[in-house]
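Notes from the 1:1 (GR / supervisor)

We went over the backlog. Supervisor wanted to see one worked example end to end before approving the batch request, so GR pasted a single chain during the call. The sequence is below; no edits were made to it. Supervisor asked that the structure be written out right there so they could see what the output format looks like.
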Amino acid sequence: MSYQYTAEQSISGEVSSVYHSLASHRKKKSTNRLPVIVIIGAGFGGLHAARELRKANARIILIDRNNYHLFQPLLYQVATAALSPDDIAEPIRKIFKDQSNLEVVMGNVEQIDCDGRCVQMADGNTIEYDALIVAAGSRHHYFGNSEWSRHAPGLKTIPDALKIREKILRSLEKAELMESPEQRKPYLNFVVIGGGPTGVEMAGAIAEITRRTMAQDFRHIHPEHAQITLLEGMPRLLPGYPEELSEKARRQLEDMGVIVHTDLLADKVEAHGVQAKDRWFPARNIIWAAGNKGRSILQTLDAPMDSSGRIEVGPDLTVPDHPEIFVIGDAACVHKPGGGELPALAPVAIQQGRYVARMLRSGTPTEQRPAFEYKDRGMMATIGRARAVARVGRWKMGGAIAWLLWSFVHVAFLIGFRNRVSVMLKWLWSYLTFQRSARLIVGRNFAPKEESR
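Structure output shown during the call:
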């Protein structure tokens, strides 16, 4: 692929060294100038694209609104006090400290100028690119009912997880002070909306907290007082999984005391409960796990989008009419040859990131790029202690074997040796003692969530 660099950036004031570095390259026309590849987002897709480009003869600029890479599949364990935030996050600069061709910018991208080949930062600075990889992830989708977010927080970020954790722990403390079971009931009712992997994992984890872990430490809370309800609008849980595994997941949740309702959509979410058709589910703890949509930054690409706000990319994951712009991960809608769309899963984003990096590194002309092909190696979801479901190739399994496989895979994919050791030790401690190690209430003030990277 050929590149052309046209930087005309004006730098003033105290800005990052990356911006100064970019300014030093402006107006250079020499043939040995390195092309600039900008990556928006340090999630799974962006991280693996950057790693794959470590030997590329290019300047890589990785932008993220946070200074860390977050291992989102274990975020629910932070929300349910099993792990601490630093167990599942690793500083981006530490990850790439030995990659000399990569620079990190912490900041928010406000707009993508496709024609000008630059990204506008919220702080007013501009970063120009020759190729752009958009791996901005997704945010919660309330299907036109954004006001529900006040009462039913979703789970996408560390602040989300800490907010949910604190709400759960405070509810248990309030329940402990109530004089009668009837007064305790609202604080011990939990409703999880959405029966995908996140919803299933959250419901199982909350069941373990209320029925085992916390029952050991509180004097007036008894396991039978807690009620965990999982609502799913589709006919079965885990809609993207084989039907056999969906049924296994349902049985395992019900064995833990979770009340599962399928074919039941939430019609109204309020501070004290959820209305679904003619059913009212009273609860002070409501968690949203029902849907995601693309971040607002994607709208500035002026490209076709699906109903969830994701960019409909071509076979090579590029934006129509812009072969230099790739969109991957949760931000991309990728149609499969046989029909349907690729799921929003970490393995999909990882493979897409590596594919895009290979295309850029090899300089494959646009018309010769092979279509991206996802190699489905399986899927899995954990439900609780020694409970999980998994599909690996043609093999389908549930229970303790699936749980052990899930644990091994997630530890293996964690970034950083310290994180792997910490998570394994905490899981072992929790398994042996039924205790959860991250149960501090810190009175944290949560800043408003930022939408774009």
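Supervisor's comment: Residues 8 and 282 are 58 Å apart (CA to CA).
Batch request approved.
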